[in-house]
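for the recovery benchmark. tokens below, seq after
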């Protein structure tokens, strides 16, 4: 039973008002989840307001002669305990007046009686011009010329057009399945973010959006509605057209309302399908335009218009399908009511009209939409801050305020105004939750690990490198054959080294001949030539060591494989260049590349290193490993292209390189291969997990944010 007072302290301000519905208000009957209601629409303003049966029975008695006081007295006599309170009746009248559905006696100071109307208008103007992510500017009333397009609307939204649309969609899907690999490469290509593609997107998307909005308008005209506003909206700084489709809210048929909501999605998917067919069948500029159409129509439908978690077409389509009007507003109330019930320990006294299934949808939608919208807004702010500098930073601050701080402030205001939450137990519960979260994040050490991908590679001694610049002469070991430790692989000599050796030997012989008898006959000359002789001898010895080093031998048992060729004889090598590999049958290592900015967590050695290797039956197993070595300095070159995005790795490549050159520096790790594990193919990816000492979550979040802002400031 409700504990709300029957009387109101403000009743004297409205009791003598004699309102009536405006002359151009049209009433239609709707049914939502087997519950009838009535929708009031004023044709001059296109404003709609939905009333339940009890409220409509009250509004139907407004004739301009009966005062609100007389109306309440009659209802009180008729309904007794079921009669609305004075506050409820006043609120109903204020809502109708704010929607401009009522006409009130002009002698009554209505600006004092119904202050909510002006507050609502001021709030709408403020929201329209203070949200930099979405600004709207009305330009024109298109209803006149749209009425002449009614036959076109009936043709577009017909069964024949539906069959054509489905055939077009199926053809595009089939074409994309056939060219799936090519589509994946095109999406992953760096050219996707090129200025040319961006220019095509700017040229294609606004006309596509205009056709999208015309689809809504024609769907409304097909059912006999009116469209009185068309304009331009700035969505994330991009000018896009829009039409006011609110007239569809008064359509009594659920299918008609859903068609209006889906019209824009239908148009965008049709053009996305045309773009797919154009991209598959055309080349040059037409192919590029088709690709942009495919991405624009497809991504716009998936992420924005067709996404029910945002208040675009998909939201209204879902609300009509579920037959839950005002889904977003009611879902927020449902979430707050559930939280309030949890804190207070009992449900509130407000009447419940939802069934169990409807409450499930309301609560689930409220949580999902709030999480998605907050994440999306923060992502847009983060993306914008990296491209528009000062304005982007201001936009990011605005997004954080609107997505995080404002909802928190509204929540605290609601708590402050709710008498049920003023008791000690609810307040303690309310404050205990954030206090526990702060304590857990700030002081409780939580498990900490770094997860990345590594590549199966060879031990360092299996890599055969040229010790100096040379040319391969003899190669006793054939490529692809098995060799044993100590076998000669090839002789790589530099002809210039042999010439220098002969010159040094001739000079040494000359010095020996000259100083042969000077030790006795001319000690001064001997002392002058002896240091030169020792230097020449040292140079000759070093040269012979370098020549002998040209004889490359296998450091372990395995199969000899040359790098990039099937024969070695006559090949010229630079100093340090990889000539080949001696691939052992059972010895492997794992190479891992970690970003330079992530090395702070490796100040202390990880307590444990684990690798996850796929097995032959489609599963995977975890094995212990250890760090063999790591490079002391970061480098932009990885030992294998499999660690970069060119080979399926995580690190972005520099387009000017060979697949091993990265955009960001990394630190190279070599991990030990588990002895009990059979050798895996070279180049295969494995999962790697570095287990660090437990640390509080707050420090990790702060470090991640610091690194993110550091990367953004350097970009």
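predicted aa per position
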């Amino acid at each position: 039973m409700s504990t709300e007072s029957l009387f109101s302290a403000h009743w004297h301000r409205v009791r003598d008002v004699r309102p009536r519905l405006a002359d151009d208000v049209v009433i239609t009957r709707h049914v939502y989840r087997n519950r009838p209601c009535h929708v009031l629409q004023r044709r001059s303003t296109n404003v709609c307001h939905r009333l339940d049966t009890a409220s409509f029975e009250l509004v139907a008695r407004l004739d301009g002669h009966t005062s609100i006081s007389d109306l309440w007295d009659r209802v009180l006599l008729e309904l007794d305990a079921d009669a609305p309170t004075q506050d409820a009746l006043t609120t109903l009248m204020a809502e109708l007046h704010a929607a401009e559905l009522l006409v009130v006696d002009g002698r009554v100071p209505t600006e004092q009686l119904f202050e909510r109307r002006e507050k609502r208008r001021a709030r709408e103007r403020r929201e329209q011009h203070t949200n930099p992510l979405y600004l709207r500017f009305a330009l024109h009333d298109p209803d006149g010329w749209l009425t002449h397009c009614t036959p076109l609307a009936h043709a577009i939204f017909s069964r024949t057009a539906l069959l054509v649309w489905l055939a077009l969609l199926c053809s595009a899907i089939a074409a994309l399945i056939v060219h799936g690999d090519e589509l994946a490469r095109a999406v992953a290509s760096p050219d996707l973010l090129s200025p040319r593609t961006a220019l095509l997107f700017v040229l294609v998307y606004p006309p596509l959006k205009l056709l999208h909005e015309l689809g809504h308008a024609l769907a409304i005209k097909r059912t006999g509605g009116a469209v009185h506003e068309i304009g331009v909206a700035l969505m994330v700084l991009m000018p896009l057209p829009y039409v006011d489709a609110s007239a569809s809210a008064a359509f009594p048929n659920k299918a008609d309302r859903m068609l209006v909501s889906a019209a824009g999605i239908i148009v965008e998917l049709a053009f996305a399908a045309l773009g797919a067919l154009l991209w598959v069948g055309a080349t040059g500029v037409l192919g590029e335009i088709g690709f942009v159409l495919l991405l624009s129509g497809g991504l716009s439908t998936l992420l924005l218009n067709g996404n029910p978690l945002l208040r675009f077409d998909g939201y209204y389509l879902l609300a009509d399908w579920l037959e839950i009007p005002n889904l977003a507003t009611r879902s927020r109330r449902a979430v707050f009511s559930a939280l309030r019930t949890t804190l207070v320990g009992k449900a509130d006294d407000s009447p419940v009209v939802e069934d169990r299934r409807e409450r499930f949808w309301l609560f689930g939608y409220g949580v999902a939409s709030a999480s998605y919208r907050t994440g999306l807004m923060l992502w847009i702010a983060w993306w914008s801050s990296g491209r528009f500098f000062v304005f982007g930073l201001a936009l990011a601050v605005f997004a954080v305020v609107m997505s995080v701080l404002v909802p928190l402030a509204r929540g605290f205001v609601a708590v402050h105004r709710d008498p049920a939450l003023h008791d000690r137990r609810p307040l303690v519960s309310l404050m205990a939750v954030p206090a526990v979260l702060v304590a857990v994040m700030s002081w409780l050490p939580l498990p900490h690990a770094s997860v990345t991908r590594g590549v199966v590679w060879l031990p360092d001694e299996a890599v055969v490198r040229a010790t100096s610049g040379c040319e391969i002469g003899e190669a006793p070991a054939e490529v692809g054959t098995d060799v044993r430790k100590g076998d000669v692989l090839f002789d790589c000599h530099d002809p210039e080294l042999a010439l220098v050796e002969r010159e040094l030997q001739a000079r040494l012989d000359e010095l020996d001949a000259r100083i042969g008898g000077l030790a006795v006959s001319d000690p001064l000359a001997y002392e002058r030539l002896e240091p030169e002789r020792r230097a020449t001898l040292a140079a000759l010895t070093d040269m012979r060591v370098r020549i002998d080093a040209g004889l490359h031998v296998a450091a372990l048992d395995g199969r000899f494989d040359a790098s990039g060729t099937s024969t070695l004889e006559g090949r010229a090598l630079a100093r340090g260049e990889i000539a080949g590999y001696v691939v052992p049958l059972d010895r492997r290592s794992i190479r891992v590349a970690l970003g330079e900015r992530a090395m702070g967590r490796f100040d202390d050695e990880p307590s444990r290193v684990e690798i996850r290797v796929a097995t032959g039956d489609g599963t995977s197993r975890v094995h212990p490993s250890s760090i063999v070595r790591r490079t002391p300095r970061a480098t932009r070159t990885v030992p294998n292209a499999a660690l970069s995005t060119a080979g399926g790795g995580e690190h972005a490549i520099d387009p000017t390189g060979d697949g091993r050159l990265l955009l960001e520096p990394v630190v190279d790790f070599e991990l030990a291969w588990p002895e009990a594990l059979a050798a895996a193919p070279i180049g295969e990816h494995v999962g790697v997990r570095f287990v660090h000492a437990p640390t509080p979550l707050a420090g990790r979040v702060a470090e991640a944010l610091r690194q993110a802002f550091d990367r953004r400031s350097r970009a």
